[in-house]
């Protein structure tokens, strides 16, 4: 199988596909608001430090482990630790986690698609009413949108790594960059926009506390698609002539660049909508921001560009978010698909059918857990509250297991595969890497403080989410 494993067609194609995975709803909405609320430029600096000093080494370790083993995450764990079944738990987690994250992400993506269609239908004004979101997520139309998304992702993945994933990213990512820049220029030329820029960029160190640091770390880790097996899988499709270090740097830069630029769009838009905005009111959750707050901001633009002008701006924004979400969804669903292909020795088509059909069923359970089906709405009780199935999936897989997976991959690479092998893999296609400062830094950090931090975040999250306690 190894000899004819699929590959990306070009280095740029790989970088765009990995950036497509990394750039998602978290960058476009979550980051700007978190940055604005938690210290502006001070948060940005902290975030950039986490991206480059903590996340980039983990990203390189995942890519190297994938390229060396030429396997999906479970196959990679088995490859590096063939005789020790305990390690395979890490491999299983790296398949189950992306599966479950894909499920909740698909639900949010279907809402984005629904909003896009509604705006194109001339319903922007209706979207700003308080009842719209609640009604929409409980309406039968969500099933149609879920089916549409399943078909779109299915078609892209059906065409495989080069003709599907890479080609999709080559179309969607440049379109995304152009739409983002176009919207930024438009918003920055509105009245009061500069108040938003100032609010976004003026550093306020007093806001930085342990919770904010923890939040910035989680955001950086999630944003780079770490701990989800994605980069192990994508790494297995990269040829040996490519420099992993340089490609990873490009992906991290693109991801951080988009997050930063999205801030220049979202915050000035909020301020030009209402110059006296009280940012404490901005919700922490990307979901309520996208679906209840942003439509109001777009509608307010009708004063200067008319109803249809405002609708067009809103539609471009939702299309942007939709593309970002779709490329992330493609990357994350490819993980279990490649897992089933490798482990069961079936064709891509069969693997896709098996993963896709079961995933739609679990996604349905998530989609109806907002009141449509009581069983899934009040699914479980923990941490002092009743939780829906959707909440449970987010709490367990997104919040809790991701840092654990990051910890496990560091341990696997450094203590099982060993640093010397990692270095050899990273030197492939990159002779300058040998003996560089980056190499020394990565060797040191991956074996010491990075796994310690990830383990700490994991333990703290478990205490926090499930026992209402905290270490910090
Ligand atoms: N990086 C994505 C984001 O910021 C996270 C993600 C990746 C989510 C892949 C799902 C699948 O939104």
Structural class: mainly alpha
What is bound: which ligands? phenylalanine
Number of strands: 2
CATH class membership: Mainly Alpha
What strand line-up does the widest sheet have?
Answer: 1-2
Describe this structure in words.
There is one protein chain. With 472 residues, the protein is mainly α. It is built from 20 helices and 2 strands. The chain has one domain (11-467): Hydantoin permease. It has helices at residues 11-22, 25-37, 41-69, 73-80, 85-120, 124-127, 130-137, 141-158, 160-188, 193-201, 210-223, 230-235, 244-273, 286-300, 302-344, 348-367, 374-377, 389-427, 437-447, 449-467; strands spanning 380-382, 385-387. The structure holds phenylalanine. Residues 21-22, 24-27, 101, 105, 222-223, 225, 328-329, 331-332 line the site of phenylalanine (PHE).
Topology (elements, then pairings):
Blueprint: H1 11-22, H2 25-37, H3 41-69, H4 73-80, H5 85-120, H6 124-127, H7 130-137, H8 141-158, H9 160-188, H10 193-201, H11 210-223, H12 230-235, H13 244-273, H14 286-300, H15 302-344, H16 348-367, H17 374-377, E1 380-382, E2 385-387, H18 389-427, H19 437-447, H20 449-467
Antiparallel strand pairs: 1-2
Phenylalanine binds next to helix 1, helix 2, helix 5, helix 11 and helix 15.
């Amino acid at each position: 199988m190894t000899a004819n494993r699929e590959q990306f067609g070009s280095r740029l194609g790989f970088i765009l596909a990995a950036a497509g995975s990394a750039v998602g709803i978290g960058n476009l909405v979550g980051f700007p608001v978190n940055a604005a609320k938690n210290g502006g430029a001070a948060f940005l600096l902290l975030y950039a430090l986490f991206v480059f000093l903590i996340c980039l080494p983990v990203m390189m370790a995942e890519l190297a482990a994938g390229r060396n083993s030429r396997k999906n995450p479970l196959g990679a764990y088995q490859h590096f630790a063939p005789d020790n079944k305990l390690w395979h738990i890490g491999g299983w987690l790296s398949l189950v986690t992306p599966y479950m994250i894909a499920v909740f992400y698909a639900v949010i993506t279907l809402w984005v698609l629904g909003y896009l269609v509604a705006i194109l239908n001339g319903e922007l004004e209706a979207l700003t009413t308080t009842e719209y979101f609640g009604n929409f997520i409980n309406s039968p139309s969500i099933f149609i949108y879920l089916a549409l998304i399943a078909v779109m992702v299915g078609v892209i993945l059906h065409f495989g790594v080069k003709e599907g994933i890479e080609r999709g990213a080559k179309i969607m990512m440049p379109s995304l960059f152009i739409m983002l820049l176009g919207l930024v220029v438009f918003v920055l030329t509105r009245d009061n926009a500069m108040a938003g820029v100032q609010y976004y960029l003026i550093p306020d160190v007093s806001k930085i506390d342990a919770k904010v640091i923890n939040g910035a770390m989680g955001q950086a880790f999630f944003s780079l698609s770490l701990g989800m097996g994605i980069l192990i899988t994508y790494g297995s499709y990269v040829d040996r002539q490519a420099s992993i270090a340089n490609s990873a740097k490009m992906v991290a830069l693109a991801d951080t660049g988009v997050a930063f630029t999205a801030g220049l769009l979202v915050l000035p838009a909020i301020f030009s909508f209402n110059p006296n905005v009280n940012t404490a009111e901005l919700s922490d959750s990307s979901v309520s921001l996208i679906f209840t707050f942003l439509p109001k901001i777009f509608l307010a633009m009708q004063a200067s560009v008319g109803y249809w002008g405002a609708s067009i701006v809103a539609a471009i924004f939702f299309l942007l978010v939709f593309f970002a979400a779709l490329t992330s969804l493609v990357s994350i669903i490819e993980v279990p698909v490649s897992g089933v292909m490798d482990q069961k020795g079936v064709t891509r088509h069969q693997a896709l059918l098996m993963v896709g059909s079961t995933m739609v069923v679990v996604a349905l359970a998530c989609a109806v857990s907002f009141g449509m089906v009581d069983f899934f709405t009040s699914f479980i009780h923990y941490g002092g509250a009743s939780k829906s199935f959707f909440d449970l999936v987010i709490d367990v897989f997104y919040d809790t297991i991701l840092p654990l997976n990051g910890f496990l991959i560091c341990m696997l690479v450094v203590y099982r595969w060993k640093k010397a092998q990692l270095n050899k893999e990273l030197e492939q296609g990159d002779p300058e890497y040998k003996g560089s400062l980056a190499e020394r830094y990565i060797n040191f950090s991956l074996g010491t403080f990075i796994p310690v931090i990830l383990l700490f975040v994991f333990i703290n999250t478990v205490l926090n989410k499930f026992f209402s306690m905290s270490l910090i």
